[in-house]
Recover the amino acids of this structure.
């Protein structure tokens, strides 16, 4: 069962359109066993009514099937709709309000409805208009069963991140946390770091495109060794320098399950790359490594080239946008023959000539996709 994805929802006269799509394939007699909540425009509602009519006439609709009753499609103000859902569907497991343009006022209605949704495991509020005030009102109401929390592309700053951090220790089942593209800086990162040791089930943390500098990264790095199930860390687009990279390098050997490490678009330089290179041999599960756009030059490239052959599971490597030219390429070319799992190597926006590109291609396995 897939969630219907249509065009971006908008408001009309202060109302949203809501539909529920069941994820329970087998129990058609109880179609709302595990429903999904989403808001739609009036145009989308008309399209959904057509789908429902076809379904009721026993015509299969692919790739989705819509289980419909008289309560299926609703046109109400958002606060009324959320209250209705909390009463009528206590087993609701998934709410997505992505791109719904709800703001702090609507979040207050959501916060009032959440305590009764004890089965809720996934809450997606990305690309809305929520600020710190809305987040603060919402964090005290978060269900304890949540496993996935996505609040990316909002307007959350340090105050909102701190409020969220205070609620995290009670959400011990959380496996995925995304705060990508907000306004979080060192203070918010430090608050989140203090809460991380209680999230022993956490596998993915996405803090891309915030404003976290070395001090915040040092706080996060100190908390990382407690996350034994951790598989993915995204810190692209912050302001990490040599000190932050060194702190991460000291913590990374503890993350034996880590498969994805994204530190692109920072400023770790040669010293940061060299520190990270020293930790790479212990990261044998790593499949994706991104260090693009980090002001890495000859010394950093040489250190990485010596460590990369130990990453026998590595399939994707991104080093583009650094100060790497033909001279530095020689060391990396020598490492490529032993990197038999590597499928893609990104070197875009570098200083590699055609001759350097040929040297890379000649050293790599024929199956490698080389992007220059």
């Amino acid at each position: 069962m897939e969630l219907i994805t249509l065009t971006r929802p908008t408001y009309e006269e202060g109302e949203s359109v809501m539909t529920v799509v069941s994820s329970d394939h087998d129990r058609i007699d109880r179609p709302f066993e595990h429903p999904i909540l989403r808001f739609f425009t009036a145009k989308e509602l008309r399209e959904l009514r057509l789908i429902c009519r076809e379904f009721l006439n026993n015509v299969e609709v692919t790739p989705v099937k819509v289980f419909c009753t008289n309560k299926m499609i609703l046109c109400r103000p958002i606060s009324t709709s959320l209250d209705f859902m909390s009463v009528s569907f206590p087993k609701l497991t998934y709410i997505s309000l992505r791109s719904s343009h709800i703001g702090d006022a609507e979040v207050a209605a959501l916060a009032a409805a959440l305590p009764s949704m004890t089965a809720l495991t996934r809450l997606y509020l990305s690309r809305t208009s929520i600020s710190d005030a809305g987040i603060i009102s919402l964090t005290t109401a978060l269900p304890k069963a949540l496993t996935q929390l996505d609040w990316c592309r909002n307007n959350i700053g340090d105050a909102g991140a701190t409020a969220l951090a205070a609620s995290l220790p009670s959400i011990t089942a959380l496996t995925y946390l995304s705060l990508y593209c907000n306004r979080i800086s060192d203070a918010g990162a430090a608050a989140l770091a203090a809460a991380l040791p209680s999230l022993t089930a956490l596998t993915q943390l996405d803090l891309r495109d915030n404003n976290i500098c070395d001090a915040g990264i040092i706080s996060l790095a100190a908390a990382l060794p407690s996350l034994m199930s951790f598989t993915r860390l995204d810190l692209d687009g912050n302001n990490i320098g040599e000190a932050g990279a060194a702190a991460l390098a000291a913590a990374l050997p503890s993350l034996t399950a880590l498969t994805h490490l994204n530190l692109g678009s920072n400023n770790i330089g040669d010293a940061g790359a060299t520190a990270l290179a020293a930790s790479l041999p212990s990261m044998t599960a790593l499949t994706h490594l991104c260090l693009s756009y980090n002001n890495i030059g000859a010394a950093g490239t040489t250190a990485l080239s010596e460590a990369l052959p130990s990453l026998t599971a590595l399939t994707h490597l991104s080093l583009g946008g650094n100060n790497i030219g033909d001279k530095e390429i020689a060391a990396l070319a020598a490492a490529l023959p032993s990197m038999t799992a590597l499928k893609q190597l990104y070197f875009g926006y570098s200083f590699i000539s055609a001759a350097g590109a040929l040297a890379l291609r000649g050293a790599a396995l024929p199956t490698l996709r080389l992007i220059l």
Notes: The first strand starts at residue 16 and ends at 22. The longest helix spans residues 42-56.
